[in-house]
Fold this protein.
Amino acid sequence: MNIQLVNKNITDIKADVLIEFLTADELKAHEKFETLSQAGFKAEQDSLCFLHESGLLVCGVESKTGDNIRSVTALMIKTLKASNYTNSKISVINKDSVAGLVEGILLGGYEFNTYKSKPKEIKLQEIFLALNSLDFTEIETTFNEAIIIANATSFTRDIVNMAPQELHPESFAILAKTLADANNLECEILDEDALKTENMGAMLAVGRASIHQSQLIHLTYKPKNPKKIISLVGKGLTYDSGGLSLKVAASMVTMKMDKAGGCAVLGIMKAVSELKLDVEIHGFIGAVENMVGGDAYKPDDILIARSGTTIEVRNTDAEGRLVLADVLNYAQDKVKADYLFDFATLTGACVVAVGPFTTGVMGHSDELKNTLFKSASSAGELTATLPFNKHLKTFLKSEIADISNVSSKPYGGAITAGIFLDEFINKDMKDKWLHFDIAGSAYTETPWDCNVYGGTGAGVRMMSAYLKSLSL
Ligand code: BES
Ligand code: ZN
Ligand code: ZN
């Protein structure tokens, strides 16, 4: 399906269906909408009314903000795709609503059909966005950027949704290489031999029982005059069975999504390189599969991380932090970055704490947390900060090693995981690092906002907005 920006009045565009956004006040104020009221339509947010005879599809909005437009557009596009119409037209209200429209259409209309044997037939081919009297060049830039970001989000969703037998650590590395070739990125892959040379004892332990070799992927986007250097680290657990601390059957289903942090890093690199932002970006992904077997790492094992820190394993299902410990340490050694961000489906506790729609944000700098909160909000992503404190840190004490990989108490699990990661953040980076726990926000089994079943692409829109603000 194609979205086309048209520098014309809406009345001068021929299309099967006209899409209109309407508030309850507008509905009441205009007589021409009487049929809608008669039909029982109240123009409540996220309500739709399709008048087939007049080729009109009306979308209710509380007010015409980007968030509201995105939300109802995501519902509207599903209705339109299920119809027999081949094209439709929408008036662009203002510059601020352009991203909402594009995201509603592309992300709300996103489908993952790779594993369906019979392709679905969709008649809808074209959506025209009429500019009426708005300035074309100004809107065009916003529109093109929104398309790039939405496509990068869909790319992230596509790889999160891939089955674990197809997307495993080695194929993850190949996928990264393919993206690098297509988008002119540098790409370095460390296989298990290289990880051994790097003394990555924590990351290697997690992947030991897998038939697939763990891989550390390092992608670089280097523009000519970068304003800042940013390192992004992603948890890329292509499957998390829990290991010997095996998950119960019901909790294991969906654990292909434990690679969503790594997939977000790839999506962000794709967006940034296509937006041609003036920021140097390094993406590091720890691609590992957490499995069971005779060779599996065990509760009671002591691991030596790349940093030299010794870790007592008390639960093999707290594997993400072990992988991140080594990848974060490696990333800081390799690149002197202005900021370091990690993305990880790290804890079920984060979902309990902030709910399934919101990303948990942790770190030391309130200023950085505030900045990222604003970028996320402007991009339509939900975040909430979870505060570190010294008392929770005591829960990670180990009697026989430097640190335990799990908390001794069943409270504050998202924060104790964040505090564990903090152990591997160098002193000079403390205020320049943030940890994003996307355990809830990265995947959904019920549609919400512009998200549909499966990977959501959490992190991509938020980071693209932030990195864009750095490159201005
Ligand atoms: N990948 C999971 C976290 C997760 C849970 C992500 C639910 C998405 C949805 C992580 O590796 C894990 O298993 N964490 C454990 C930690 C515990 C053993 C301390 C958890 O959350 O139960
Ligand atoms: Zn786990
Ligand atoms: Zn995990």
Remarks:
- Residues 136-161 form the longest helix (26 residues).
